[in-house]
Each structure stands twice: as C-alpha cells, then as structure tokens.
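G., the chain you wanted modeled:
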Amino acid sequence: MNLYRQLQSFFKLLKTAEFSRGIRFAVAAIIPLLVTAQMGEIRLGIAMAVGVLLTSPSDVPGSLRRRVIGISFSIAIAVLATVITGFSLAYSIFFIPLLILQIFHYSMISVFGFRASLISFSGLLAVVLSMAQVAAEGGVLLHALWIGVGGLWYLLFTLLFHYLLRRRETDQLLGEIFELTAQYLEIRSRLMGLKCDNREELEKEVFTLQTTINEKHEILREMVITRRKNFGRSGMVRKRLLIFMELVDILELGMANPVNSSKMSKLFVSQEDKIKLIQDWNEIMAAHLRILAQGSRRKFNKTEEERLKAKRQETWKTYRELEVSGDASGSNEMLLVFKNFLVFKEKQYQKLLSIKRLMEEWKGNEKLKLKRKDAAKFLTTPDYNFKTLQDNLDLKSPIFRHSVRLTVVMVLGYFLGELFAVQNAYWILLTIVVIMRPGYALTRDRFKQRLYGTLIGGAVAVSLVFLIRSQVVYGILAVISLVLAHSMIQRNYKTAAAFITLNVVFVYSLLRPNVLQVIEYRVLDTIVGAGLAFIGAKFLWPTWEHSIIQNFIKGSIKSNLEFIKEVEAFYNNKSTLPASYKIARKNAFLAMGDFNAAFQRMAQESKTDKITLEETFRIVSLNQEFLSAVVSLGTFIRSQATTKASAHFANYISAIKTNLQASLENHKIPTTEGNSEEINKAALFYDNLYQELLNVEKDEVHEKEEIWEKLQEVQILMDRLKWLLEISESLRKILAKKA
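Predicted structure as tokens:
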C-alpha cells in the first residue's frame, strides 16, 4: 500500500507546476553546456549553467513583472558576488571581511518577503560557488560575465515558456487548488461525525491544509488579477478568475459549517443517519472537484452526474420527510440546524455546477463582479521601503539574528575547511546555506532531511556506479536526477537532497574517474555542514517560535475583528457586497494560515513546554472556530433575505468586539460585565422571538414557508452570536492568564 501511494505521489508530481519548472531549469542549464562543448569552450558553458542555477530560485509563480524583477536582481547579485569573492579569494586579509559583509548583507535582503529571500539565497549561493575556483580562462571578470549571460539566457528562456505556456501554468495551479479544496471538504466532513475519535488530529490537518490553500490562493490571485489588468477583456483570463472566485466561495461555504461537536451530539443523538447523508453528499462533491481539476482531459460521465444528483435529492427528500414529522420528533432546533447544513451544501453544489458550466460551456459573456480598481486591492504588495530594512537592524528581528548567526557559522565552516584541508570545503558552506533558516524548527527539519537525503542518495549512487559502467547512462541519470531534484525541492526536501546527491555524483562521474572518493567527500562535507548549521541554530541567538507566537495570535485576532466589523456593516446596510468585505475575509484567512504555520513550527521546538503548547493549540482552535462562525454568519446574511438588524444584534457584536479588543491588549484586560445586562436582554429577545415564531408556525399553516425562513434567520443569529461571544470570552480569559 505504501509503495502504491509513493507511485501515486510520483505520478501526481509529473502533472504539477514544480515538475514543469524542473524541466525548464534542466533544459536551460544543459543547452549552454551542449552548445559550448561543440565549440570546444565547455568552461563558458559551465559558467552559463552556474548563471542559470543562481537565477532560477527567484523564478517562482506570480505576476510576470515580479518574476522579471526578481530574476534581474538575482543576476545582478550573482555577478557582483562572483566578482567580489573571485578577486578577494587569494588574499585572506581582504577575503574574510568581504565574506562576512556579503553573507550578512545578502541575508538581510530576506526582510522584504518570500521572493526577496530567494534572491538572497542566490547571492549566498554565488558567494559559495565562487570559492570553487572554476573561473573560466580570462579570469574572474570573464567568468562573472558569462554567469550574467547565463542568467540573461535563463530570463529569456523562461519568458518564452511563459508566453507559450501561461495558460497551462495557471491551469496547473488551479488543478492543485481544486485538489486541496476537495481534501478540505473531506476533512470537514469527517469532523462532522458524531463519533469522531481523532478530532484533534483532524483539526491539525485542517490547520495545515488551510495554510497551504492560502499560499496557493495568494499565488493564483496575483497571477490572474495581474493578467486581467494586462490583458483587459481576455476570455481565458476572465474565465479562470471566475473559476477561482467560485473555488474561494466553495471553501468559504465549507468553513461556514462550523462544527460545534458538543451541540451536534445533543441535537443529532438519535438522527445520526442525517449527518451521514450530509457527509456522503460532501464527499461526492469533493470527488467531483477532483474530476474538474483535470479540466478538459476528463469530462463528467452520466453515472457520476446521476450519483451527485441522486445524493442531493435523497438528502433533501429526507429533510422534507423529517419536516412533515417535525412535531412528532419534538426537535425543531435539530430540524433547523439540519436545514442550515443543507442550505450551505446546496450553495456549494450550485457553485460546483457553475464551475462545470464555465469549463464546458464558456461563452465569454459572464460578468465579473469585481471591478479592476477593487481587484488590485486583493494583491499583497511587499513593502520594499528602506525603512523596513532599517527597522530590522535589531536583535529583536528574527531576520537580523539569522543573518548574524549564518555569518558566524559560515565563517567557522570556512576556517574548518581550511584547517583540515578539505578537498571541497565549499560543500560545507553550501550545506550551511541550504539548511539554515531563521527559526530553529525549520533548520532542524532541514538538517534531518538533508542528512537522510544525502546518505540515501550516496548509497544509491554507490550501487549504481558499481552496477553501471556507461558514460551515456551517467549523463541520462544526471539529467533525470537534476529535473527531479529541482521539482521536489519545495515539496519534499529529503527526496530532493537525495536526487541532488545523485546528480552531483553522476556529473563528477563524467568528469573524473575517482567517483567513489567524490561520494565519500560529499557525504563527509554534508555531515560537517549540517552539524554546524544545527548547532548554530540551537545555540547562537536562536529564534524560538514560542517567543514570537504572540505576534501571530494578535495578527489573527485583529483580522477576525476587522472581518466581523465588515459583517456587521453589511447586515446594517444590505446592498451590493463591498470589496472591503472580501478583502477583510481574505486577510482573516491569511492571518489564520500564518498563525497555523507558526504553531506547527512551535510544536516542533524542544524548548516549548507541554502546557504552553496546549494553551496555544487551544487559542489556534478558538481562532479557527471564531473565523468559521463569522464566515457562516456573513455567508447567511449576504445570501438570504433577512430582516433589519436589531439593537440586540448590535449589543452582541459590541460585546464580541470588546472581548477581541481586550485580547489584543493583554497588559490591561477589561471585562464585558458592564454589557452583561444588555447581553441577557438580547439572548432573551432571540429566545422569545424563536418561541413566538414556533407558535405562529403551528397556527398559520399557510404562511409556513415564510415563518420557517424567519425561524432559520433567528436560529442562525441566536446560535452564531452566542457561540461567537463564548469564543471571544474564552480567548480573552486564556490570553489574560498568559499576560
């Protein structure tokens, strides 16, 4: 079974954007080698291939403009680092200070965000590779020039692929989002089970998945919105933007079914089969999302369509039968909760059909509900202000501490290499650059993965070298391992490290006869470099996630506060849904994802005690529940005809906002005791209104549908507002203890 899953994972990799980029990188690196080899100038080809290697890290998905700028900066830094390191290498009195300055300055570039961190990596990599003393004939300047030419070649090559395959690139990313959304629906479905034994593990899965989905959404949002600005009314771009918007709504509707397990157990204790129906419907929709992920390559067949429709009809039929016997069941609240689940599922079903129609019957006349000016607001723009760099020149900054730590460890690695006259000392530094991360948990993971990957790759390489004696086969395996290494580096670093080792061994086997010695030194240098990186991350000004987790807690609470303000504003003045609502929702999702990721890193730290971990997990869970409840409330208000917002609604929201604001101000935690009377009145108002509507429903049969709509609104408001207040109070109390 494990082998089957591994094969499945491998074949999925072949369809991903990462694999496409791996092929693009390999082709771009190999072409200069082949051309210059024919010309008898292989050293120039090697320099160009190094240029491709140094510029490719910043070629990550996003807007074309940012990709071009990122690659251009990588080229400039690679050339500069090569020149400085190359000229100073022979003079230790100059080399050591320049090495220190370069490592620190290139590391600090990371303060400007993810793409900047990849440019930073290119600079550090250029410094290390310049120490390999592979300068072309003609000296350092010529070598640096050809590295720059290689970078420019890669830029032109990737631009060509972009214009030829930009539709495929977007479709691959969309396909991944389809798959992730399907996984999200399945896990949420399992959480609905009344006898769910592994609820905590599933919640952690949801947290991790939410973070991954947010990252993919951000990339796709940047790609399609930027292209829409550039291509105007392009049908292809509009179609994908519409599909993306529908996928975001499906995710929101999935989150809009918050699972209050204790309440669910009480309401559906004798109606577990009803929950099972919703779970089955949910899982069939998840399966259909996977079919849609394949685009034009896979169409719905009649059996699949009928299965989806049959499950929908069965579920609604069960509800209607339950509604008829509602008085006998004695649980109107259960019936209303059941209907609310079905209403949200029905909306997801309609979104699913909308995506299917967009993919199969697109005519280009669907209207976008997002204005171009509003669309630009959804893009997350990094702050490249010099003040950002200035503000981080402090030991409180994780990036500053990482830069100092990395500088010290790399200089130490260089001296160790010189002291013991290591054959390829730069491999030690290369390992340090690749492994060390700002946080201890990430560095430790990289340390393990790099070590295991290198040992596995070395063992496989030794076996293959003994079994195979063909230079042609070595060349083919070098290319294959290069593609797979580049493809896996973001997805599975341990596997990528194994393929990197294989690639290095096969390349050396083409150049030198003593390949086994190469493997020996490769493994030894990796162990030394990995050990230095691990020790440095743990003992040199370490950045512990538990010491900065408070920033992520406050970020998530603040985003939730802004989101609930938007929901309140929309309920008070229902009209066209403003862009500010969707932006607040997006920010809340992203902040929650960042918090989830920070918690996962914190859970891996040895310095995190069990009590702190449990408290933080409780805060993560409460924030996730709060966001789900707000999404549920907002989705209902904007998709259903509702009555005018009452003063009691305002009192509830005011108390909830007070609690959230108090949670942000840990130094002085106010209470909501002053609002308790208004809250009690509001709770009594909704309870009385609920009972009145129930009594009217029994007497006024001809107005039953209208009354049930009002009952549904009151039940949603009553349930969500009480739950939001409870969650906000729990957050306030937990954070008050931590203050």
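The domain at 545-738 is CATH 1.20.58 (Methane Monooxygenase Hydroxylase; Chain G, domain 1).

Shout if anything looks off.
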